[in-house]
Amino acid sequence: MVTYRHLGSSGLKITEIAYGNWLTHGSQVEADTAIDCVHTALDLGITSFDTADVYANTAAEEVLGRALSGQRRESLEIFTKVYWPIGPKGPNDVGLSRKHIMEGINGSLRRLGVDYVDLYQAHRYDYETPLEETMQAFADVVRAGKALYIGVSEWTAEQIRAGQGLASQMGFRLVSNQPQYSALWRVIEGEVIPASTELGLGQIVFSPMAQGVLSGKYLPGAEPPAGSRATDGRGGKDMISRWMRPEVLTAVQALRGVAEEAGLTMPQLAIAWVLQNPAISAAIVGASCPEQLRDTVRASGVVLDESIMKAIDAALGDVIMRDPARTRTVSPNPRPA
Question: In angstroms, rounded to a whole number, what is the distance separating the alpha carbons of residues 230 and 53?
């Protein structure tokens, strides 16, 4: 069964492997398969589920809501997010204005079929809305009982500090950040993690397998496997493109021997590496079939010894991205249309 961890310094416990439906439900995977994956996650002991209103333009929330229907609500931790354009994508269908946050939470609750979410997250930083307005809206969402906790996603250390300061004045706290993090993408280690740890935020990280590249299934010089994310023209191909360079794929293949030495599959090694960091509250995994989940959950509770950690660093070498400035680039200055 999957191990639990505290979400930052809060009292909430979540499974250290959370199930997410970013590029799958309502898009890459048919609804019946998606529901089977959610039920498999529950059978394997995963109780924490991450989604967002923008995933498949709200369809992912609907699929997750159907999949969790009939489950004991108190035994689940449901996370969703607000920021990116949804619906007809009008001028107020995006961002962290009071209007969009209030309409966003009501829409998410309706699609998920619940009275509240455990964690409501600012999906990016909004440079066009005063931070005071955003934090006041989140405070009101909490007071209304529509969300129990508030988090952010891909905020810089400076933004997290400013947000936590305002949140504290308004009677609540930020408890989490959801950044990208993997053995290949370590940009949060220099600034975001130290600031978050100081302020009590845990990291719920996405893409612990670098969109699947760390699974080892993409070979240098070869065409991507049919049906893989790298062949998906609905968004997956664009997201994974940064890792499809020959030097990256060659370095990843050097991890095969490391995984074998550790007695793990390559996906298990990638997730176990992320979970070695005590600042990480959970790693989000997705799945296009139940068998993938049955493999990846075996990373829960794994302890990698120092020699394995050093071997991972040696294998990946110069292809590791560490520049903390990269965090700033993921939140666009103008709101996306």
Answer: 24
- Count other Cβ atoms within 10 Å, centred on residue 206: 22
For residue 214, pLDDT over 60 is answered with: yes
Paired with 72 in beta bridges are none
Task: Give me the pLDDT at residue 32, please.
Answer: 85
pLDDT value at position 225?
72
Phi, psi of 259 (to 5 degrees): -65, -40
The answer to whether position 335 is within a domain reads no
pLDDT tens digits, 32-46: 888 999 999 999 999
Q: How far is residue 34's CA from residue 36's CA, in Å, rounded to a whole number?
A: 5
CATH number for the domain spanning 151: value is 3.20.20.100
Contact 278, 271 (CB under 8 A): no
Distance CA 101, CA 235 (A): 25
The amino acid occupying position 189 is E
Query: What tokens appear for 69 in the block?
Result: 């229907």
- pLDDT band per the 50, 70, 90 thresholds, residue 275: very high
Which domain range does residue 193 map to?
A: 4-330
Domain membership of residue 288 (yes or no) is yes
Pick from 98, 114, 105, 124: nearest CA to 49: 114
Number of domains observed in the structure of the chain: 1
Catalytic residues: 55
The pLDDT of 24-36, averaged and rounded, is 72
This prediction's pTM? 0.94
Confidence label for 25 from pLDDT (cuts 50, 70 and 90): low
Tell whether 337 is covered by a domain: no
Is the pLDDT assigned to residue 286 strictly greater than 80?
yes
Dihedral, 165, 170, 176, 177 alpha carbons, nearest 10: -60
Q: Is residue 336 part of a domain?
A: no
